[in-house]
Design brief:
The chain is of the alpha/beta class. The chain has helices at 11-22, 36-45, 62-70, 90-96, 108-119, 127-137, 146-149, 158-168, 173-180, 184-198, 203-212, 215-218, and strands spanning 2-7, 27-33, 50-53, 77-82, 100-103. Helix 3 (62-70) links the parallel strand 3 and strand 4 (77-82). Helix 8 crosses helix 10 and helix 8 crosses helix 11.
């Protein structure tokens, strides 16, 4: 059973999500919060596996709440729901430690699949949305911010850097396999080694690092 907490300042949104998720045999909604501060308090006192987090909220927004939650011992995974056209904090949420993000108009089936995926330790990085979102926010990174960070890429082989660049483009393992003419198992091995060498938690952090170091910008 996946224990889920819903964080959104709109009660109607929380009620709708609860109705959908509670109908799933493998998901249980164990708590709700109307803002980020209440969410952090909820996580401290409740056994939760996945937090479905809004971004724009009063008192404490979803980005700050995600950062505080990820600083707690044994934190749950955080899945951010965002409205792409109006929400300019989604990239910051990924940097704060969110396991991924979805648009608020995502089909119910995709939300359920995403919750299961992040619970299993995967990251939800929808290819098309990732490219659009990161293309929008990368220009806002401070000039030269990637130069010191780029040094960490020296730990990677040339092939691993290529795989990381393709991950940052939002390609799945199967798509990377086709692009590089190697087996999917080989791609999985490369991704695992990249995460281990760079001390990254998941593919979301790998995407963020690739953009911050300039790897993705330079070789799309």
């Amino acid at each position: 059973m996946i224990r889920v907490a819903l964080v959104d300042d709109q009660e109607l949104v929380r009620s709708g999500l609860r109705m959908v998720l509670d109908a799933q045999p493998h998901i249980e909604v164990v708590g709700e919060a109307p803002n980020g501060r209440a969410a952090v308090d909820l996580v401290r006192g409740t056994a939760i596996d996945v937090v479905v987090m809004d971004v724009r909220m009063p008192v404490l927004d979803g980005v700050a709440a995600t950062r505080e939650i990820m600083a707690l011992p044994g934190p749950p995974r955080v899945l951010v729901l965002t409205t792409f056209d109006t929400d300019e904090h989604a990239f910051a949420a990924l940097r704060a430690g969110a396991a991924g993000f979805l648009l608020k108009d995502v089909p119910t089936s995709e939300l359920i699949t995403a919750i299961a995926a992040v619970h299993n330790g995967d990251a939800v990085v929808a290819p098309s949305t990732t490219r659009r979102l990161l293309d929008r926010f990368v220009p806002h990174l401070p000039a030269g911010a990637g130069e010191p960070a780029a040094a960490v890429l020296h730990a990677l082989t040339a092939r691993e850097r290529e795989v990381l660049r393709l991950v940052a483009r939002g390609l799945s393992n199967a798509e990377i396999s086709a692009e590089l003419f190697v087996g999917e198992g080989t791609v999985k091995t490369h991704v695992s080694r990249i995460l281990a060498k760079l001390g990254l938690r998941d593919r979301v952090q790998a995407v963020v690092l690739a953009y911050e170091t300039g790897l993705a910008r330079g070789g799309r």
